[in-house]
Known about the structure:
alpha+beta; 12 helices
Amino acid sequence: MATQPFRRRGKEGRPEQGGHGGEAKQRPESWVFSPRFGAGVLATGLLIAVAAGCCALVSLGRTETVKMEQVDLWDNGLTIQSQRGEVVFKLAFQTGALDLESCSKEGDLLTCSESEKEKLSFSIQIVRTEDTVTCYDIRWGELVADSVVEHRMFWGDAHWYGGYEMSVQHWPIRLSGYQEPVPFVTSDVYSFRNSFGGVLERYWVSSKAAAVKIDDLVPFHLGFHASERYLIFQARYKDSPYKPPLGQPPLPELSYHVCVGSDMTSVHKHMAQKYFRRPLKIPSADIFRFPIWSTWALYKKEIDQEKLLAFAQTVRKYGFKSSHVEIDDMYTQNYGDFDFDPVKFPDALEMFGKLKREGFNVTLWTHPFVHVNSPNFEVGKERRFFVTEPAGHVPAMVRWWNGVGAILDFTNPSARGWFQGQLKQLCSKYSIVSFKFDAGETCYLPEEFSTFQPLPDPSIWSRHYAEMAIPFYKFAEVRVGYQSQHVPCLVRIIDRDSVWGHELGLKSLIPTVLTLGLLGYPFVLPDMIGGNFLPNKTEGAVDLPARDLYIRWLELSAFMPSMQFSIPPWLYDGEVVEIAHKFTALRESLVAPLLLEQAKTVATTGDPLIQPVWWVSPSDKFAHQIDSQFLIGDAFLVAPILEPGVLKRDIYLPAGKWKSYKGEFFTKTPVLLTDYRVNLDEAAYFSLVS
């Protein structure tokens, strides 16, 4: 979201309502009461009520503005100010106008019972906290079935962060065009580029220290209008995948919590403590110390025993430590099997024994789909393990990137137990340490379906799938997250293309990792170094990703919570192998201890593991827009090169005494270092000197 003033403002900051074309509906001047006058009317009304001996419940009477401490409420919207008197949150009601004469106030609670059209249930509750944060619980409930509640939240001149994983990821958020409100549910943004990602939360925070969290039970739809600079919050059941609670009519309610603090770091800490669970445990220390070696980029679905052993041997041949090998797609005969294809892996037991003796931890790719040609299809059908068609009798067949199959119903405890049991047998039989849990987004559920436990929100199915990985947490990775911050596994960002830009390219890595961290997912795997290298999705190379793209990707990954090779460095040349050795050694000796120490803090506080620069300087407006640097903790800053053919970059150092990786000291801070030299075999990093 770029920082520009509102295009138009209502009288005295009043929210405006307008159609999608952006034309606001302005009341005649004689209809507009200023906030000061409205507050005077309210104060007079309160004095009369007290003089008459009324109880604490006060009718507000005829007024066009209601002031409630830092809140100014009009019939068509509201604003919230900070303690400094700055408007930090601005909302317009699109559903209809409130009848302010129906409003009454009792203590910190204001309620209204009517709109200009019909009865409703509206309230604002001030929630006072022990710290510097003040919160406002806002609720608009309709009393007519299958109606719609819609509010517009204006961006203003603030930067906003959070929300969801995107195919084009920026930090702070940037949106373009217009999007009608659509269900805010998990999806695969690699295959469906305009959808929401596999990791999302109903949470945003702004540079003006305002944060908003939509209630979990809201049938939430999100849209936006970039040129008019607002998000659309919508609640509806009609024509949506959301379902009302059992036995209740489809009465939509849009309820959310707005919190305002002294700075955005403190307000985010408050929100994270209140609304996000903390990781139950911490992944294996080896995840932080050593790279993962995936078979995917080299072998795709053609992996077999001979290739796997040769791959592991080559890792050792080039002087890398035996760390972690991940076997990807098609090691089984059929999708849905839980054993190795005996043709491809004629002696799997001996193979895994050899890998274990050589010091490798081995993980396997897995997924929730079962094809008809797998013997487990009949098992799942007979035991009702699958998501079914609406009538609840026949497995609902779904299309995914490897064909058509049934999908396991993880709301069913028996299905969960069976699936985990199959995985545990693989671990026991072959000394497998964990799994790469692929897919899990709601876009791979049928359009109409039935589950063992009803799903009021389809993304709850994604949460159940992520929770399947908890017993395997030490080396596990998932790629979905929704109300599942407690799952202590790596969260893999969606597949990347071998390109430089913000659309699933190198420049998108830092914004995506920062976004996931802000949403409460600290242990992030930034996918494969160099990207997937798929046809038509690669820049500057034919046989491999561009050499400098690969090197810069490698250097950045060395400072992330985990790093993963799939295209190995020896496919380039000796210099690239040397650079890979340099950064894997740096990771083991310097970065991993920092990550592990910070991980202990994360498990208690919910803070991000990889932090934005503004985390330590939340009032620094320059820091609000930095998307190519990050912090590990509050004392280690990383600034990699993310442009092709470049050996210089600008680096911003926030307040403090900083020491560079070259041994330089910088004491006159904050400072912007322009054209700072960073060679091809370097990534700039700085330590805060106490």
